[in-house]
Amino acid sequence: MNDKKIRINLNIQGKSYPLIIDPSEEAFYRKAGNMVEEMTNKYRSTFNASGMKTTKLEEIDYYAMVALSFAFENVKLEDKNDTKPFSDKLSELTHELEDCFKKDTEE
Q1: What is the dihedral of CA 73, 76, 78, 84, to 10 degrees?
Q2: Which of 16, 36, 53, 61 would bridge 57 by S-S if both were Cys, CB 3.0 to 4.6 A apart?
Q3: Are 41 and 66 a contacting pair, CB within 8 Å?
């Protein structure tokens, strides 16, 4: 197993974030960093263009909205990938089949 780590710097909104990661994950981190950058810019331009002059948003507000968006998508994916109902049904059907086979062998 390769335990070597690499050091990368991700730039998000003009700030550099040094990370020590597995080399196999570098592309994922870079893509994620780009997604955060793009989404932050999207929220900034959306709220600045909407005329929300009464509510002054701070940088942390944009990052909170980005975090919420990613968390929301993650929750949706978890729910979509929930296989418990299928596993439960499969188990139920397996028991029914086993019961049928037992009855057939007993006769």
Answers
A1: -170
A2: 61
A3: no
